[in-house]
Amino acid sequence: MTPGTRRAVGFALTSLTGLAAFIIIAMLAIILFNVVENGAGGVTWTFLSQPPSDGMMGGGIFPAIFGTAALTLLMTVAVMPVGVLTAVYLHEYAPPHSLFARIVRVAVVNLAGVPSIVFGLFGLGFFILFVGQGMDRALGHEEMYWAQPGILWASLTLAVLTLPVVIVSTEEALRAVPMDHRTASLALGATQSQTLGRVVLPGALPGILTGAVLAISRGAGEVAPILFTGAAYFLPDLPSHLNSQFMHLGYHTYVMATQSPDVEATRPLLYSTVLVLLLLTFALNLVAVIIRTRTRRKAAGAH
Amino acid sequence: MSLNPNAPRPKMEARELTLRYGTKAAIQKVSLAILDRRVTALIGPSGCGKSTFLRALNRMNDLIPGANHTGTILLDDMDIHDRSVDVVDLRRRVGMVFQKSNPFPKSIFENVAYGLRVGGMKDKAALEQRVEKSLRGAALWDEVKDRLHESALGLSGGQQQRLCIARAMAVEPQVLLMDEPASALDPIATAKIEELIHELKATYTIAIVTHNMQQAARVSDRTAFFYMGELVECGATEQIFTNPREKRTEDYVTGKFG
Amino acid sequence: MDRHAIMEQGLTQPLIAPALSPAARRRQLREKVIAGFITLMAFTGIAALILIIIFVAKEALALFTEPEARHEASLSKMFLAQDVAPGKPPFRWQPVSKIPKVSMIPLFVGTLKTTAVSMLVAVPLGVFGALFAAEFAPRRLRELLKPVIELLAGIPSVVLGFFALMVMSTVVKEALGFDRPLNAMVAGLGLALAIVPVIFTVSEDALTAVPRSYREASLALGATPWETAWKVVLPAAAPGILAACVLGFGRAIGETMIVLMASGNADVISWSLGDSARSLSATIAAEMGEVVVGSPHYSLLFFIGVQLFIFTFVLNLMASTWTKRVIRKLTGGAA
């Protein structure tokens, strides 16, 4: 190759890859611009604080915001202890070369790859039909009480879905706690669990919080797993019991976008709903990024 | 070893101790007594097993996967690997200070109080008293008494290491193991640590690993020379440095290799 | 040597008790209980995976055990051509018509079509984007790309589906002259948005795992940066990039909301990208709400779930094997 062609090929390759990167950035920008442009006008206090009215043509989305928040709160309560302790097992307790730990890791990786719709089927088949029916029978409910879609089952389904997120980020956080701190604690006569509770977990806390926020962001946006486990399009009341159905921002978006009798009339509301959902997940992601960079900087400064 | 009944008794004693990581032996059949209220220096070139030996004395090697041993280690005539010995109790009696100062990212007070808290001490007044006593013992009290509740990470390197010594002393162990405690410090901080070791030997039995021959000569009463996983020679520090019995010891202390 | 005499003189502290003290025994018991509890928690991940396959498969099992279901939805009806009146398509998915037609073939075709489109778009974008970020990008740009990818990955798929439905459908229809706005092309492009972050992230990890010494050696021999990237870095990271593509493929097959909202969902078999397509995942999502629990149709939808589970499971296993291999090769080679 002559130097000229070499330079030309190099330039072509660099610009081609640069173009790919540019397209990725542009895609995000276009989506954001489109949603903000069409949705920003509709996001008012009334919109955020009122229930829908006029057969979904007016009013707000408060019940959907409330439902999403309640759902993800329950999910977080369920997933955090299990996810954090699993990571603690993998990083702190598992013997080296433990076969069990290896199987757990493989399971977690594969769990992360299971399609979200399959989680929906799982929620229906396991939580509602198996656990729910079993509970109804055991507790003597004459009619269906637990064996129906409800916020508890939906949140538990999401908890299983977000389990890998929590485990992976907690493990990363544990890895960042210096080994020195553990040995110092043990040398002072602390037991392993005291070391864990007083030194390791406090040190890993920011990373664990990052994991929680990422899990919430993921859980808040998922629709497929809650399709059959508890989401409803319109409810007159907010969910009040663990077996209540609930409204949800993502599900609301889906139904309004695909099943509206008058697309043009609902379009502004729809865009505003999407904007709220997007802002919510971005805000959560941003929080996660901030916590992470802060702790990384702190960790770098400490050494 | 000395049979003179007036000599200090051994506080800790290793008998034919062999330690392996997996199948590779790190120390071979080492028999060595650490005398009560004396400073014993462990010297030798890198990788000679002196740190491994030190870590065996409070069973920190238990934490390393694949580490195993034969032979015995006695603390006051009690086998520390006996089933009746709880490793937590052992480590409260045999404290350790590490090469790299490793304070917790907590306040100065909480660092020193840590061992007491995990040991179950809750009384605030008693905690404060013990923290003060330990900090005074480590010659750090005057420097930090006004900022006990600030982060320990704000201290200088030398102060951090003395904090770690105070932290180890707070649980009132009988033996203090020090793994090159001054290797990362400047000469002034090093001098302070050495001075401290001098004071501590009135109450504690001390074993110190050091790379620095002058340091060993300055602080220790007895010196043990390790080479390639074996204990070559052990005796009074003066004798080791002026009149070693072994050729290898002489070569090492005179700087022919190391 | 008279050890006892010596000990009596100097001994002020108690000896270690000849047996474990009650306090030590209590402490050891507590530690064991805590360790046991933590180990038990670690079992949840495995249990979840096993329960998923058991309970999804359990609901599908009726297809093979119940006579009614076996008649209505036999394997041959699902996978083979059916005898129909001339001119009518032999493969149809119409499980709620008077004579249920349950061929999975249109669903496979629909899934493959949308997935193929998404891969054709997302693989070059993701891999080249990652190559740019890892090899060519100035520092500033690289630090911009990372959060952009994270934000893109953070967009809920229902929002991407919404965007495909509301915006991309019109643009694509006009640009390519399709008859209908919702088709395999639009769904595929929407899917591409979802899997670009996956492919980008995993590829970039593989590229940055290539040791600096490889690059330095190549540059020292007089190769230009792009020659180094193309002939040294890319081949070294190839298994990892392949893994990235496989992971993206798995995500695209399993992704539901985007296809459900943007593909049109008709069970037609055609290779035109302008035609509507119905995917496996979207079929479950669209029909599960209206089926009678325990009916053959209900079991069929769970059976689709089992297939999706198996496809993605196999793809994930392949991907993780390759990722491990590239890491082992590179870290082993660097030492």
From TrEMBL, chain A:
Compartments it resides in: Cell membrane
Keyword annotations of the record: Cell membrane, Membrane, Transmembrane, Transmembrane helix, Transport
PROSITE patterns with a match to the protein in the record: ABC_TM1
Coiled coil stretches, renumbered: none
One Pfam family in the UniProt entry: BPD_transp_1
Signal peptide (UniProt feature, chain positions): none
Domain ABC transmembrane type-1: start-end pairs: 65-288
Gene Ontology MF term list: phosphate transmembrane transporter activity
GO cellular component, one term: plasma membrane
Membrane topology category: Multi-pass membrane protein
GO terms, biological process: phosphate ion transmembrane transport
Spans through the membrane: 12-36, 61-91, 103-131, 151-174, 195-216, 269-291
Similarity comment text for this entry: Belongs to the binding-protein-dependent transport system permease family. CysTW subfamily.
Name by which UniProt lists this protein: Phosphate transport system permease protein PstA
From TrEMBL, chain B:
Sections of the chain in a coiled coil: none
Entry keyword annotation includes ATP-binding: yes
CDD domains associated with the record: ABC_PstB_phosphate_transporter (cd03260)
Source taxon at top rank: Bacteria
Keywords: ATP-binding, Nucleotide-binding, Phosphate transport, Transport
Gene3D superfamilies in the record: P-loop containing nucleotide triphosphate hydrolases (3.40.50.300)
Domain ABC transporter residues, every copy: 12-253
The keyword Transcription regulation appears for this protein: no
Pfam family, one: ABC_tran
One term under GO cellular component: membrane
GO BP annotation list: phosphate ion transmembrane transport
Any GO molecular function: ATP binding
Protein name per UniProt: Phosphate ABC transporter ATP-binding protein
Originating organism: Myxococcus llanfairpwllgwyngyllgogerychwyrndrobwllllantysiliogogogochensis
From TrEMBL, chain C:
Ranges for domain ABC transmembrane type-1: 108-319
PROSITE patterns: ABC_TM1 (PS50928)
Chain segments annotated as transmembrane: 33-57, 116-136, 148-172, 184-207, 228-253, 298-319
GO MF term list: phosphate transmembrane transporter activity
Pfam families to which the protein is assigned, alphabetical: BPD_transp_1
Membrane topology: Multi-pass membrane protein
Location within or outside the cell: Cell membrane
One GO CC annotation: plasma membrane
Cross-referenced InterPro entries: MetI-like, MetI-like_sf, Phosphate_PstC
Keyword terms, alphabetized: Cell membrane, Membrane, Phosphate transport, Transmembrane, Transmembrane helix, Transport
GO terms under biological process: phosphate ion transport
Superkingdom of source: Bacteria
Primary role: Part of the binding-protein-dependent transport system for phosphate; probably responsible for the translocation of the substrate across the membrane.
Cross-referenced PANTHER family: PHOSPHATE TRANSPORT SYSTEM PERMEASE (PTHR42727:SF1), PHOSPHATE TRANSPORT SYSTEM PERMEASE PROTEIN (PTHR42727)
Similarity-based family: Belongs to the binding-protein-dependent transport system permease family. CysTW subfamily.
Name of this chain's protein: Phosphate transport system permease protein
Organism: Myxococcus llanfairpwllgwyngyllgogerychwyrndrobwllllantysiliogogogochensis
Name of encoding gene: pstC
